[in-house]
Each structure stands twice: as structure tokens, then as C-alpha cells.
């Protein structure tokens, strides 16, 4: 059986082979958050476009300013003012943050280090050449590529685009991800479940996870544990860019997802991973589309999505797969888990002073959404560990939706 790292690598390799040119659209920077850029963005001019003051204070010639120096203040420069006049020898000019430093001046002294009486400014300390000035062109040169194709657009990237005037961006369209739950016991949210039925929570969590991963969820409802119904709905799902199923991949008599996929020509790359929860997870390519059969227990579904489906959505979005957001923290309460499988335990990381501490939460196993609701991460117990003592460093997978 594959480790989760090996299984993930399989997904990345196989979906990477499917990646063709993505359909693109021109999107306003206001709407492009989370999309993947499909063009280069270059600067329209140098940045900063002029020698910019980074402080409120006085523009001076550094050599003229020693502790106790007094200079005549000959005016003021606000942010946005047109600046052409050279600073006369033996004078200073009041300047604001974001304003252009006048020719001749080579330092800005913070107002906090000066005293003013009328037009005379007294300086408390020496000035150093270049202080509090960002020189023209030092952040970026004109025509420099500042965003490239395949980059994910977060707030900083969008600010970059806005700064250089790229108001419309060619972006890859989000991959459409079909979501199909399975199970005779599963009813939709608009139905009142019978005593032995359950509501379809997996389709809701999967749709949210698809969205967070950058995909466009296409919920297809629920298939009964019957070959015909499953076959029909899976075929419908294969019309989208990827298909994610929940349930029906374990060893039960009515776990039919794999056999139905096989009949539709699927090639399987794994049908089990050495993890708990999530061991029966399946990954196949069927009719050219990546298909994930995730176990139906809600915590299993969520964990296996993060491990295996999220990187596929990255690649189908035109980006590289992001690394798993694993971080390290100190274990706050000792652990004892069965070795052999890597465990992903619902857990809570708390930040106290500078140190992060994580504790596994009490839970009733992989069906326990109530426990997961209190978790902000999954504590990762490696397959070869049985006992982990308080204070040992452990790895955890952050829930990126809440942390
Ligand atoms: P399965 O993987 O089909 O054996 O299902 C495992 C467990 O997950 C069972 O207790 C199911 O009732 C539950 N389950 C399956 N599908 C869903 C769903 N869509 N939403 C919530 N729970 C589910
Ligand atoms: Mg089932």
C-alpha cells in the first residue's frame, strides 16, 4: 500500500500528464482573487517612479547635517506634488511620506529628530546619505516581468497588477469538479431523513473544499448503491474536468464505486493508502478525467480531499501543486496510536507566546463531524510511531479554511 506521500506524488504525476492548455478569460483585478494567471504582467515604468521619501521630515544634503546644525526651511513638498527645483545649498525643505525628494537632496531626516522655530530647523543628529529615501527604479525596472503565467493571484499579486495598471488579467478558468455522493442511506438537505438515514453533508463539505482549492464545484447529488444509478451519474460526472465521489469504496457488499469505474474503463493508480482515516481512498483516470473515490466517513472524506484532490485541482487550474501546508508544533498531550498507518487526528493548535502547542481532540472516529468542528488542524502521526511524548515536535496539517 502506498504512503500518503507516494499516493500524492502519483496524483501529481498523472494529473500533470493530463494538463493541456486551459481555457482562459479576461478577468478584472477586482474579481481575480485565487485565480491562476495565464499571461505575463510587466511594469509600465520604473518603481518607484521617482526618489520617494519614506518619512515625514526634512529633505537635506546629508553632508550639511551634523548634531546641532540649523538650516533654513524653504518650503514643503506633499505627496503628489510636481518636484523639479533643486534644493539650494544650506537649506532644507519639509517633505511628506510618499513625496518626491527634490534634486540635490540625498537624505530625509525624520521630523521626530528635529526642532523647528519659524523657518529654521534644528537637527539633533547627523544625516546619512540615502536615509529614508527609496531611489527611483530600485523596486522594479521599466518593462520588468513582475507576474508570470501559472502564478496564483493572492492579494499581493493583485496589488502588483493594480500598481502597474493591469486592470484586466488573462486568467485560467477554474476547473469544474463534479461531486457525487453515494449511499442508500444518504438524503439531500431538502428532505427529512428517516430514523436510519443521514443528510448528505459530504457534498457540502466537498463543494467548500473544491472552492477553497480553486475549483468550481458541480454537485451532482447522490447515487444509490446500485450499479445502474452509479454508472449513469458517474458518466455525467466524467463530463467535467474532474470527478470526486464520496462513499462506496470500502469492502462492503454494496461498495460498488470501483467496479462501476472499472466497467467504464478506469485505470487505477491506487485503491488504498496507508492512512487513517481515509485508507480506502481510490484514484483513477477514467475516460481522460481524474476520478477520486473518497471514503464516505466525513472526516475521511475531508482528509483525503486535502491530501489527494487539492493538488489535482491546482494542476488543473494551470498552477503547480502547492505543498501540503504541514507545520511543526510541540505536542501538548502524549499520544498512543497503532503503528502501521499514518494517522490524521483532528486537533487544535494554540499559539501561546511564541510557541505553538497542539493537542489531539477526543473523537468518536472518522464519522465525527462534531469533533472536527473544534479542530483547526490534523495532527499527523507517522506510520512508524506508536507513542509520542508531551513536548515532542509533531507535524500537523493546517485547516487552511479556519487558520
Ligand atoms: P461508505 O464509505 O460508503 O462505507 O460510508 C462510510 C460512512 O460514511 C457511513 O457511515 C455513511 O453513512 C457515511 N456517509 C457516506 N456518505 C455520506 C455523505 N454523503 N454524507 C455524510 N455521511 C456519509
Ligand atoms: Mg456507502
Structure report:
By secondary structure, the chain is α/β, with parallel strands linked by helices. Helix content is 20%, strand content 32%. It contains seven helices and 28 strands. A six-stranded mixed beta sheet has the order 7-4-6-5-9-8, with no helix packed on it. A six-stranded mixed beta sheet has the order 16-13-17-21-20-18, sandwiched between helices. It is elongated. The two termini are 32 Å apart. The mean pLDDT is 97. The chain binds adenosine monophosphate (AMP) and magnesium ion. The site of adenosine monophosphate has 19 residues, from helix 3.
The spatial strand order of the largest sheet comes to 7-4-6-5-9-8
Q: Considering DSSP H and I runs of 4 or more, what fraction of the residues is helical?
A: 10-25%
Could you tell me the number of beta strands? 28
The CA-CA distance between the termini, in Å, is 32 Å
Average pLDDT rating: 97
List the ions, cofactors and other small molecules found in this model: adenosine monophosphate, magnesium ion
Outline the low-pLDDT stretches.
none
The proportion of residues in beta strands is 25-35%
- How big is the Rg? 29 Å
Number of discrete helical segments: 7
Q: Main sheet?
A: 6 strands, mixed
Principal-axes geometry comes out as elongated
Which structural class do the helices and strands define?
alpha/beta
Protein topology:
Blueprint: H1 4-18, E1 24-28, E2 41-42, E3 52-53, E4 57-60, E5 70-77, E6 91-95, E7 107-110, E8 114-117, E9 120-123, E10 133-134, E11 145-147, H2 155-163, E12 168-172, E13 176-182, E14 186-187, E15 198-199, H3 201-213, E16 216-223, H4 227-237, E17 242-246, H5 257-263, E18 267-270, E19 275-276, E20 282-286, E21 289-294, H6 298-316, E22 326-331, E23 335-336, E24 342-352, E25 355-360, H7 369-373, E26 377-381, E27 387-388, E28 393-398
Parallel strand pairs: 5-6, 13-16, 13-17, 14-15, 17-21, 19-24, 22-25
Antiparallel strand pairs: 1-12, 2-11, 3-10, 4-6, 4-7, 5-9, 8-9, 18-20, 20-21, 22-28, 23-27, 24-25, 24-26, 26-28
Helix pairs in contact: 1-6, 3-6
Magnesium ion (MG) is lined by residues 182-183, 247-248, 296.
